[in-house]
Write a structure and sequence with these properties.
Blueprint: H1 2-9, H2 42-50, E1 53-57, E2 60-61, E3 65-67, E4 74-75, H3 77-88, E5 97-101, H4 107-112, E6 118-119, H5 127-130, E7 134-142, E8 144-149, E9 165-169, H6 173-181, E10 186-190, H7 193-201, E11 207-211, H8 212-221, E12 226-229, E13 236-242, H9 247-262, H10 265-272
Helix pairs in contact: 3-9, 3-10
Bound molecules: glutamic acid.
Length: 293
């Protein structure tokens, strides 16, 4: 019984810790489209002149976008998506992509003021954001859930949040949903989910809420301390954020996503990163051509 539980959850003290980080040897290499040109895209032309792409992502979301402070290297599914797109745009992901960590609340400004060329970081496509930035995708679909301490008994889903402190990130769709649709929950906001998780472990808050992709990554790092509970209570289609109006870039990205899904790169990237949080690769969603028409 115990041995079975150990195997299933990988949570026994005697057992070895679960594999939680991407294994660099298993990450796909993306073929670079050497002759690629996109003269209709101001963003692409600027990057080409600069000699490299500057891509925004997250730095503290294990499995999705995480920076190793010892090496400065970024890893995760979002990072892989960013790299395969770069390769399709004619940039070598190993030498011609610089990552920049941008928090949820700062994504639109970073794209508007040219701080980054594009953004891949658990970024939900929605109408409000479409007024400010362009999108390609979706390349994945997540849903909002709850992360609690392992010994939590009373928070089991979105209907059990009354009077409890629920933490999320400023400028995110999950935070907005908690404040608007669940007024009995006590909403707490920080700049990032990693700060929320620290506060959960210190018992300053009772739960962390955001996309399941993000929460499962934190839970996989500390399975003895935290678990993800309850059903998904939203649909979060992830897009690649780009400067508004650069339709040529959006179309090239959608074509790149479709091609990389077809040639197996998307699945290889998923299997080497997000799958380590325990969820096998779903079928990728179809790209939405209306985003770039
Ligand atoms: N996908 C949600 C959003 O874009 C939550 C994750 C995040 O904050 O990056 O707001």
């Amino acid at each position: 019984m115990c041995a079975l539980a150990l195997l299933a959850a990988g949570c026994g003290r005697a057992g070895s810790p679960p594999a939680v980080g991407p294994q660099p040897g298993k990450l796909p290499r993306y073929a670079v489209d050497q002759g690629f040109r996109l003269p209709d895209s101001a963003t692409w032309k600027r990057a080409k002149a600069r000699g490299h792409l500057v891509v925004g992502s997250k730095e503290d979301q294990p499995g999705m976008g995480e920076m190793n402070p010892a090496t400065g290297r970024y890893s995760g599914f979002d990072v892989e998506i960013a790299k395969m797109i770069a390769a399709s745009l004619g940039f070598d992901p190993r030498t011609q992509v610089t990552f920049k960590a941008i928090a949820s609340a700062n994504r639109e400004t970073a794209l508007q003021n040219g701080q980054i060329d594009y953004y891949v970081g658990t970024y939900t496509i929605n109408d409000g954001r479409k007024k400010l930035v362009g999108f390609a995708g979706p390349y994945s679909i997540a849903g909002q859930r709850l992360l609690v301490r392992r010994d939590e008994k009373d928070i089991t889903g979105p209907d059990t949040m009354s009077g409890r402190k629920i933490c999320s990130a400023v400028g995110s769709t999950p935070y907005q949903r908690i404040t608007e649709d669940y007024p009995k929950a006590v909403a707490v906001a920080y700049d990032s989910y990693a700060i929320c998780v620290d506060n959960l472990l210190n018992k300053q808050v009772d739960a962390v809420t955001t996309d399941d992709t993000i929460l499962l990554g934190y839970a996989a790092k500390k399975p003895r301390d935290m678990r993800v509970v309850g059903p998904q209570f939203s649909k979060e289609p992830y897009g690649i954020g780009l400067p508004k109006g650069d339709k040529a870039l959006g179309r090239a990205m959608n074509a790149a996503l479709t091609a990389r899904e077809k040639n197996g790169d998307w699945k290889r990237a998923y299997d080497a990163t997000l799958a380590l949080s325990g969820v096998p690769a779903p079928r990728p969603p179809a790209v939405d051509r209306s985003l770039t028409s």
